[in-house]
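Tokens in:
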């Protein structure tokens, strides 16, 4: 099931289950995702939900490092996770370049029925994110990108 893409609500409700401010990059992404996994398991979240969140956020955080801050030193990222009665609400904020207007764009995977040399190198990230989350919202607020993801357990 693909996530509908909507505008983000203005503010996230409730106190966060997990919150981190960090600089974008592969090492910090691994550290943050590990800490998030521990927090989600400790909060009693189902292993399948934790796995879906981790896969989607790994892609989001890598995209921020590779695309939003391309050509710049690693920039700040803020990750906030709020546990609701039946869902996790996640907001990722960064100060990098805005998402292109055509993203999330085509939620379909690139063609896979091609030879190995013809296999595309990119184009898998947004389809993966949209398949893992039930709702996705994005807005640019001043110089800040705000991406919200909702995951139902």
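Residues out:
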């Amino acid at each position: 099931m693909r996530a509908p893409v909507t505008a983000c609500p203005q503010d996230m409700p409730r106190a966060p289950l997990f919150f981190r401010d960090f600089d974008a990059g592969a090492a910090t992404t691994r550290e943050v995702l590990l800490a998030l996994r521990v927090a989600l398991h400790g909060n009693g979240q189902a292993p399948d939900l934790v796995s879906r969140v981790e896969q989607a956020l790994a892609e989001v955080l890598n995209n921020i490092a590779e695309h939003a801050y391309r050509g710049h030193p690693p920039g700040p990222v803020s990750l906030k996770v709020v546990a609701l009665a039946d869902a996790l609400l996640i907001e990722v904020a960064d100060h990098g370049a805005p998402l292109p207007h055509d993203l999330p764009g085509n939620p379909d995977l690139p063609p896979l029925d091609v030879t190995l040399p013809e296999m595309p190198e990119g184009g898998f990230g947004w389809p993966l994110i949209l398949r893992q989350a039930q709702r996705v919202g994005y807005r640019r607020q001043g110089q800040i990108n705000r991406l919200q993801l909702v995951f139902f357990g």
